[in-house]
Amino acid sequence: MSTAATPLLRARDLVKEFRVGRRRTFRAVDGVSFDLARRETLGIVGESGSGKSTTARMVARLIDPTAGTLEFEGQDVTAAGGSGLRAFRGGVQVVFQDPYSSLNPRHTVEQIVSAPLRYQGRKVAGGYRDVVRDAMARVGLNPDHADRYPAQFSGGQAQRIGIARALVVEPRVVICDEAVSALDVSVQAQVLDLLLDLQRERDLSYIFIAHDLAVVRQIAHTVAVMSQGTVVEQGPREQIFTEPRHEYTRTLLEAVPRIDPAWEAARAAGETHEREDTR
Questions:
Q1: Which residues form a coiled coil (predicted)?
Q2: Which CATH class, in words, describes the domain spanning 3-242?
Q3: Are 42 and 55 in contact (CB under 8 A)?
Q4: Where, residue-wise, is CATH 3.40.50.300 in the chain?
Q5: Most Cβ neighbours (<10 Å): which of 11, 118, 133, 152?
Q6: pLDDT value at position 180?
């Protein structure tokens, strides 16, 4: 297979079991497989408890899979450790859900954003400050605020700090685990636009974990739908959203609030004050 045709990231039959009590185990993820192409976004959607975040943590090697394999740039990294794991994490970074809980409140932005560089053991002549300031500017933050602490930033700004931290090591893949779900709608749109701009500029690939199908439709090229630890449907974005094949996918789509054009027209004309049904 040619390098051009090889997926950047490939997961095959990933399984994760957690011990519950002395003799029982709970299978949170059961046989998840997918390919992530270069410069593309895979959206993984499902309800809370569907296993999507556990899948993300396995793919990032934050937790080890019970079974299955993970390949990055054609290399098996399922059991990588030591320098191999550090190298993998240089290529695959994570942006977490809660922008505040994922940032050490006692560290400055400079300390937070430079942390992956220190973990990687990358030396920078003159220190990390200029690299951090460049990363902050790229995500729309004022570089002069590098000495401030997370509590001094809004939720949207704090999430941009998390994105800057992920990008500072020049990764190939960024896993966004519910990265906009804690943000207001207007701030969500700004962060999504930023992610899309960065993807075009840096040839990034994303795994975008979300329960909000409307958000996934804006950013994903392909979509995997998870339920009870398994992928029940997977395919191109428009096929999933316009011709879903699995009943669970149809149920998720039917739960998305929709605007009633007739009601909106009446509201604009001042003819109604109440919305009876938005779906």
A1: none
A2: alpha beta
A3: no
A4: 3-242
A5: 11
A6: 85
